[in-house]
Amino acid sequence: MSVSLPDVLPEEDVLDFVQRQHGAFDARLYQQVLGAANAFKEGDQAIGVAAADDVSRQRARTLLSRTRLDDVHAHPPFEDRLHVFSLEAWDAARWRRVAGWTLGQLKDFLLTADEASVHDVLDGLPSDVIACVVKLMSDAELKAVGGRVFHPLPGSRVGARGYLGARLQPNSPTDHPEDIRWQVFNGWSFAVGDVVLGTNPVSSDPKTVAAVEAALHDVLVTFGLTDVMPHCVLAHIDVQAQVEALHPGTTGIWFQSLGGNEAANRTFDVTLEKMVAHAASRTGRWGLYFETGQGADATNGHHHGTDMLIHESRKYGFARALKRRVAVAQGSAGRDAAPWVHVNDVAGFIGPEVFRTREQLVRCCLEDIVMGKLHGLTLGLDVCSTLHMDVTLDDLGWCQEQLAEAGPAYLMALPTRNDPMLSYLTTSFQDHVRLRERYGLKVDDRMWAFFQGLGVIDAEGRPTQHFGDPRHVYVHYRRRLGDTRPEVELRTEAEVQMARVRARGVPLAVGHGKEPWTLEPALEQDLRRLYEDAKVGLWSELSDATVESLPGAVRLRTCSEDRRDYILHPPSGESLDGDSEAAVRKLRERHGGRWDAQIVVSDGLDPRSLMDAGHLSPFLDTLRAELGAQGWSVASEVLVVKHGRVRAGYQVGRLLFGDEGDARPRALVHVIGERPGSGHHAYSAYLTAPAASTWARQGAVDHDRTRLIAGISDTSVRPEDAAREAVRILSELATTARTVPPSAGDTAAMG
Q1: pLDDT in tens, 43-69
Q2: CB within 10 Å: which end of the chain, N or C, has fewer?
Q3: Which Gene3D superfamilies match (predicted)?
Q4: What is the architecture of the domain spanning 540-738?
């Protein structure tokens, strides 16, 4: 559904228009006018607030430009406690200077006033006002504002004018410390990596997270950089706190994904109380690291009828208020209030249901840069694309160049544009080298001096003969550990380790092509081969032979009409069609309550992960054996869902296990093909085991109750190992289900 707006009257603003159309204020029409002012994105269209055409969009912008800031602030498109909390960091005195302006006047001020004058009003701008003024700006105007406002992190040049930092993202398909360490060496060999060493873990088990934290911490300690930059394992913030409690001093900056409203945050198992408590504990050098992204709220079913831009801006308001809490905590601990808090906008990670094209990716990133900066935040970008979007490898370079003009604090950094664990496209080391050269940018001064000391760049910042050679960095690493062996021996050892890393599917970039900012040709070919392989996987279908090979297979399907509908419209894959729902109800009758565990298999975004030899069968065989050994009664059938997504599994669990009078845990293991692109053809196992009484309540089971094992294949996380880990996790979940009454658990989740 789209929004068509009739003619607007002279001098009419949004509130006048809504009053004229309905004779009174109408909250839904108000939401639609605000959304219609946005540049087009598929995510707003799905919510029902996108403009039907350019004429309606321009009319909405005209109405918005005439609307006073205090009227926008007085009419929030929806309200919750997060919205109220975000106002804690809002300066009412500064607000009074601008409250009477129209949004058009605020836009003109941001484009023409000097930077000091802009900084002087920022704390007085509420999140909804910031979102609305951004709606009025062209891409060129967003670049202009972004390129004039900067918020460097305390005691550094990260986020300052003329600087482009990098979050090294040393992800491993197996959480192997060697993979992680070598990607850090690799980035530093290109003089890249000055903001944070940040790894996305495959497993969020505290022991695994602790091992990855230790690997990152070791590198910083060895090179004497612990006061220069932090490290981070991007597990849930509760897990990071648990690791710190077990191993004090080993964690760096703490990470958490944020939603734009309370309900969306509950999907991340996040509450206001929890985040306030974590912020209060960050009294040291490093504070908090947040990730956001337009569309996450809507795709999790919590849009409140409001467009993506409003939600994204409110995430920054949440971050701004938490940043203030960190400053208070530092002051209370006797330290200078200098909160090291930054935000990474992960634009493009969700998929085409949010937006599809490279132009939309640039627009989204520009909006988010400006909204972040107008909140006084240091904001970086993950300029990324999934393989099912209409954004190619080459498009990403074009996008990066458009965005560099807006002054993001940092970008991601990997050996190639393909993440070997997350299976998405992002920024490579070489992209950083190219952008720095083209726009005259550099990294934080302390790390620039470090790279010069390593000898990978010279005094003028030009590449040396050691540029792009991670073996050279390894030699320095060993020397700092006191290793006195000859360099030739250390380099030979480095080659052996690098070969092991590559064998696990993690590329390492050594040297370069014709220019220092181009990939070595053979690695470029490998990158493009993986890209083409991913496109094949994306449009594959799960074969009949695979389904028939599963003992007791029961075929189900979702409401997706076909593969294209499934890929472009994810909600269609989140619920069973009528016939399948009836089939599961009949299955429940046949079971008669005999089973407390059910296996579900869905094709996902790469069905080949379930069809490749040595992938699915070893997992299922080991899973059944281990579950039985632990006392679980596993249903003999395997439910095979065509075009299934994670929430389709929750529906199966509710239909099979829901019983309001039964407090015993019931387990669902949902196997789904992952995003293609890594070359591993990997799948994931989603593990859920609440009480039957919790399954019974509509909507009570969602992602916050589920644990994940990702990257399962014969070349990454071994299927047999994944199955044993799944049983261990299910035992933990079952223990929680037995010890926490459902009502108490729900109250805790609500905050």
Answers
A1: 999 999 999 999 999 999 999 999 999
A2: N
A3: Aldolase class I, Ethanolamine ammonia-lyase light chain (EutC), lyase
A4: 3-Layer(aba) Sandwich (3.40)
